[in-house]
Amino acid sequence: MEEKIVIIYAHRNRDTERIRLSFESLKKQSSKNFEVVFVDYGSNAPLTEDLKKLMGEYDFVSSFFLPVAQLLWNKSKALNYGVLQSKGSYVFIADVDLVFHPKAIERLDQLKKPERFFLFKMGYLDKDTSTCLKQLQSFDGLKVSRIGEMNGMVLAPRGAFLEVNGFDEFFHFYGAEDVDLFSRFETAGYKEGKTEGLYFFHNWHRSFQGLEDDIVTRNPRIQNIMRINQEHYFRNKDLGLIKP
User: Fold this and answer.
1) What is the crossing angle of helices 16-27 and 45-55, to 10°?
2) Rounded to the nearest 10 degrees, what angle do helices 225-239 and 177-187 cross at?
3) How many whole angstroms from its chain centre is CA 100?
4) Which of 94, 155, 164 minimizes the C-alpha distance to 119?
5) 140 burial via Cβ count (<10 Å: 0-12, 13-18, 19+)
6) 143-to-19, 99, 168 alpha-carbon distances in Å
7) What's the per-residue H, E or C state across 8-70?
8) Which partner for 122 in 143, 148, 155, 193 could form a disulfide, CB atoms 3.0-4.6 Å apart?
9) What is the mean pLDDT of the chain?
10) CB neighbour burial string for 123-139, b if at least 16 within 10 angstroms, e if fewer
11) Could you please report the per-residue DSSP string of 227-239?
12) What pLDDT digit, counting tens, does each position of 62-121 carry?
C-alpha cells in the first residue's frame, strides 16, 4: 500500500467558493504526495451539479455523491465512507473551511508514524481576512483572530481508523465525534503526537451553533444535540470502548 496521505472532506450544502479556496491551497503544496477523497452527503441537486464541475478541475480529487438528502447530517457516516474509499496508508481529516499552508503536506509527511496520531493547531481568520484569501500570495504575516488547539483535524494511519471502526455514527450534526475518535485511538494503544507550528487556517463563516434558533427553516434540527453528543462521548469514554 502506498505511503500517500489521503485527505478526506465531508460536505453538505456549503458554498463552492470555500471548497475551491481549500483545493487551490492544496494545488500550491510543496509536496504532491497526497490525494483527496471528497464525500458529499446529500447536498441539494443544483449544488451537486456545480460541485461535480468543480471536482473535474482538480486531478487529485476523487469525489463521491451520496443521495441521502432525506437523512439528517451525519459527519461521522460521511467520513467513514471516505476512509473506506481511501487507498493510502495515512488519512488526514480535513474540513471544507480549511486553507493549507504551502508546506502543510510536507509537514504531514515528516510526522506520519504507524503507532501515532497527530492533532494540529488551527488559525482562525476573521471575516475581513477571509474575504482576501483569493488574492493571498503569501502566508507570511497572515493574521489570525485566535488559535484553536482542539478541532476535527487529525493525521493517523488508515489502519487505526479501521481498528476502532472509524467515527461513532451515533453523533449527528456537529460536536464530539472528533474527541470521541481521539479518545478511542488512545484506548486502542495509539499515542498522540505533539505538533508545533501553524499550517492550517480556518476560512470564516457564521457559527452554526444557534444559527437558526430564532427563524423558521426547512433544515431539520434536534434540540440540545450538542449536549446529547457530549453525553454519548462521556459514555463511550467511561466504558473504555474501542469500537462503538
Assistant:
1) 10
2) 0
3) 12
4) 155
5) exposed
6) 21, 14, 35
7) EEEECCCCHHHHHHHHHHHHCCCCCCEEEEEEEECCCHHHHHHHHHHHCCCCCEEEEEECCCC
8) 148
9) 88
10) bbbeeebbeebeeeeeb
11) HHHHHHHHHHHHH
12) 999 999 999 999 999 999 999 999 999 999 999 999 999 999 999 999 999 999 999 999
Which position has the grid cell 504507524?
114
CA 19 to CA 191: how far, in whole Å?
A: 31
Fill in the amino acid letter for 101. Answer: H
CA distances from 238 to 133, 151, 179, 197 (A): 43, 22, 14, 33
Report the run of H or E that residue 192 belongs to, with start and end: strand 191-193
- 8-state DSSP, 102: T
Decide if 194 contacts 149 (C-beta within 8 A): no
Q: Residue 228 is placed in which grid cell?
A: 446529547
What share of the chain in percent tops pLDDT 90? Answer: 66
